[in-house]
Design goal:
The complex is a heterodimer. Chain A is about 35% helix and about 15% strand. By secondary structure, chain A is α/β, with parallel strands linked by helices. Chain A has one domain: P-loop containing nucleotide triphosphate hydrolases (Rossmann fold), CATH 3.40.50.300. In chain A, helix 6 links the parallel strand 6 and strand 7. The termini of chain A are far apart. Chain B is of the alpha/beta class. Chain B has eight helices and nine strands. Classes of the chains: A alpha/beta, B alpha/beta. At the A-B interface, helix 1, strand 5, helix 3 and helix 5 of A face helix 7 and helix 8 of B.
Amino acid sequence: MGKDTTMIESITILPGKNKLGIAEAFSRIDIYPGEIVGVVGPTGSGKSAFIEDIEQLAQADTSTHRSVLINGCVPDISMRFDPKKKLIAQLSQNMNFLADMTVREFLLLHAKCRGKNMNMVEQVVYHANTLTGEPITEDMNLTVLSGGQSRSLMVADVAFISDSPIVLIDEIENAGIKKHQAMELLSGKGKIILVVTHDPLLALLTGRRLVMKNGGVEKIFNTTDHETDLCVELNRMDSELFRIRERVRLGEEIVA
Amino acid sequence: MKVIVVAGTPGAGKTSVLLNTIKFLKEQQVKIAVAKIDCLYTEDQIRFKKTDVPTMIGLSRDMCPDHYTIYNMGEMVSFAREHTADMLIVETAGLCHRCAPYTTNGLGVCVIDATTGPNTPLKVGPFLSTANVVAITKGDMISQAEREIFRERVMEMNAGCRIIETNGLTGKGTAELAGCFAEAPVFNYSEDHLRHNAPFSICTLCVGEMHIEKKYHRGVLRHINGVQEYKGE
């Protein structure tokens, strides 16, 4: 298919069924480049399954029966499975690597899988280190990395090696890393971003959010002006909290 | 009749993946019989019986489990015929990495656990390299990058296979896998051969015998009804 497979004009999610077998109450959800869409809802409400459907470009063949279209059409089957043609990068909730290899070997192998330039290792490790306080080096084994180091490396890997027009982010706030910087790395210009989150800061940062319940999309909210203003205020409080937390960590006394 | 032979390391998720696939195929009105082979112990028949398909179990005991599977293929096919099944699904014990009980006209399905790490595909041998379909399980437990590397390694070992990412818990990949089962060729007991020879060792299959029909076998042989005998000089 060549060039047209890399040009994304839109993705479309067509409704499936919730866990009770009831059809979802939307006709279609179209998402365009440059948009950030939130996915919110209680644990077990189907947020990760929603993201999964997009990751595998479901064609009514998953447990949710949803379908996903690219540029309004059913995507070519190779786009679903061949990592070299994949348009979707996913940061899942996993906090640890299971592969027994060094950081360098891992990044080289992944770059090969994605058909990317092999000299990105340094860049990825450099950016991973900006997200975590515990230094990561190329010769470390993946399995010894802490949760924060693993997530930072996963973020940098998704940002540079999996670099794709559609990015799916699952609960980045759980990582114990600098979430705003991580979001900035991941959400390049003109990308379609879906972010699963419990964090009001991230949820209100999006343009609209899908509310999940019982495995289905229950509501779709557009972020209001009031919420956008609130987000600015929450961000101010968050930086204040972050500043105090760092001082507590360093063993300082906090004075008003 | 179609014969589907499913192999994979213990705990990879063979039974869970199969239960989803059987449920899906039953909804498509496919008549299925299952044979579950294990070495010393199994209680998977309880799980299969819940799907309401005729299920036969076989324990290989002192015999090599893959040879036992092949040696008893005739009985398993007869069992499936008695139940007027269109499809026999054989779940093997899957312990030995050296051989694979796939036959020329059976569909060979390898179930492999992605959490065992990206070197596993390089280690497991013919049950991966001669499979038609490779079902990767537990991909949700690892990062997308690790999944992609795992997939690449599977391709290195078996470039022509169909890879399906499955999940025994959520049913991911079920429809695709069921589609492969439905497209399997017709099995022929007297003409089918093994795809890959077993190790050169002590039994007739081990020394290169490729016929599956009973009259060709020698050595310590165990029948599916529990009778064990020695055939030879």
